[in-house]
Amino acid sequence: MGKDTTMTTAGQRKIFFRLMGYAKPHKKKIILAFLLLLLTTIGDVLGPIIIKVFIDDYLTPRDFPYGPLAALGTAYLCIQIGNVLISYFQLLKFQEIALKIIQQLRVDVFSKVQSLGMKYFDKTPAGSIVSRVTNDTEAIKDMFVSVMVSFIQGSFLLTGIFIAMFALDSKLALFCLFILPLILYIMVLYRKYSSVFYQDMRERLSQLNAKLSESLQGMSIIQVFRQEQRMQEEFEEINEKHFLAGMKNIKVDGLLLRPAIDLVYAAALIVVLSFFGVTSFSQPIEIGVLYAFVNYLDRFFEPVNQIMMRLSMFQQAIVASSRVFALLDEKEVSPGQTESNEGYRKINKGEITFKDVTFSYDGHKDVLKNISFTARPGETVALVGHTGSGKSSIINLLMRFYDYSTGEILIDGKSLKSYPLGEMRTKMGLVLQDPFLFYGTIKDNIKLHNHNMSDDEIMEAARFVQANGFIEQLEDGYSSKVVERGATLSSGQRQLIAFARTIAAKPKILILDEATANIDTETEESIQTALSKMRKGRTTIAIAHRLSTIQDADLILVLHKGEIAEKGTHQELLLKRGIYHKMFLLQNGLVEGMEDAVSKGVM
């Protein structure tokens, strides 16, 4: 659902009915809430009628019999008390329904975000997504909690009031009907202009969240490079645009909401009083009827004012809903199983084959060109090359973070696309250069809430990568708290936990993206020993910048500008005296090869 949809009445209607679809599971509660609302409306309508009877039948003729007056007073008092009690339960029920609807909507939005493909996150700022899940759903909640209750209650009360007015004097009630088209016109006019301004406000708020998110994530870089002033100016610029959009909307609110309705109310009051004034010249008028009409008119405009004041919230909710539904309708989902009719296919050996794979992120520039290689179980295939050569792109395709259209990737001789994502995620272990740790405990981060994993298995995995040494020295050991992203742990400690997490899952295929980059030399030697054991019977794909870490690889692929420029073992590649040889010379401080390597653009 695009941005322009919210600008048309048909588009707003479509969004509204889609929102109402979330109310279907709560039919019984809604019917009960409506019945309670009907009772409160009847009570509101009966009140002025009782006062009218008292004025015309007893007060005007100065007749005060105790019995009827006591009955009349008791009835009025019971109606008011009953109204208070029923209103409480009715509002409670509506609020409960509204919160349940928003609860489900938020779950749907969050679930959708979890299923989106990496392409979506590449083009959408994180703050913008957060804004849709939090701010936009909050605006929708306000609509259900406040606006819908006011609209429904107001509609019931308006209908009841007009019925009562026609019962009292049909001719005058018919005159009062002229106010309805005026109110509807004001509403249409308001929706037409406010939708544009609210759309702008939501976009600016989304940009504010994006800028804030970026600033928080990069705070160390901002402070190191003294970018505080620039970031503040950029934030102020976006904030100013948000302010201007808000001011435009306030001007519309100030003109078309309360002031316009008050003008219509004054016109309606003039009509009613004029009618009674003219009628009084030809026939006597009943003071009670006059009181009832003026009272009903006042009661009529009370919900109208409530509705109009809530109309701004409704408009915000419609705009917010269009943004939320745009996210729910996003088609850039994570690639899944697309080519199998054989049910749940399993990865048994873990043999990987790339056949002439060409890939582009944007559909224009190829980052991989005709990539072909095979990694057999128990073998280690290393990917080396300068930044932008395509190493990480190979990993992204193998992990199904992105889909490919040219060539083929096979696992155990079957298309990668024929495996369910669940099977792939279970049988593939990924360790990144910058590991991500979740808020919780070290134990939780190793087992990732896998309830079938025992404490012994967790500790065995930690011992396997020699992470148990620093973990057991912590005050609470494996139950030690991990703050957001593991900020209180060193880079090496975070990496060791990531290794333990991957090993604990016992994958068939191991993928290492410069996994030892943040670990000191002594720890790296220990991990290399652990990795050697771990590779047995497993297929390993390793991205490496430090050539010393992959010299024992069964196959080394040297990537250059998205193509495999060289391949072979460490010794074979050195003998070729090509790109790999130049890289090896540079990394080992043999400067005689540096000049030639730089001139060829290798480093």
Automatic annotation (TrEMBL):
Gene Ontology CC: plasma membrane
Bilayer topology: Multi-pass membrane protein
SMART domains linked: AAA
Protein name per Swiss-Prot or TrEMBL: Multidrug ABC transporter ATP-binding protein
Keywords, alphabetical: ATP-binding, Membrane, Nucleotide-binding, Transmembrane, Transmembrane helix, Transport
Top-rank taxon: Bacteria
Residue ranges crossing the lipid bilayer per the database entry: 30-55, 67-91, 144-166, 172-190, 255-276
GO function terms (MF aspect): ABC-type oligopeptide transporter activity; ATP binding; ATP hydrolysis activity
Positions of the ABC transmembrane type-1 domain: 31-316
Cell compartments where the protein resides: Cell membrane
All residue ranges annotated as the ABC transporter domain in the record: 352-586
Pfam families, per the entry: ABC_membrane, ABC_tran
Protein source organism: Rossellomorea aquimaris
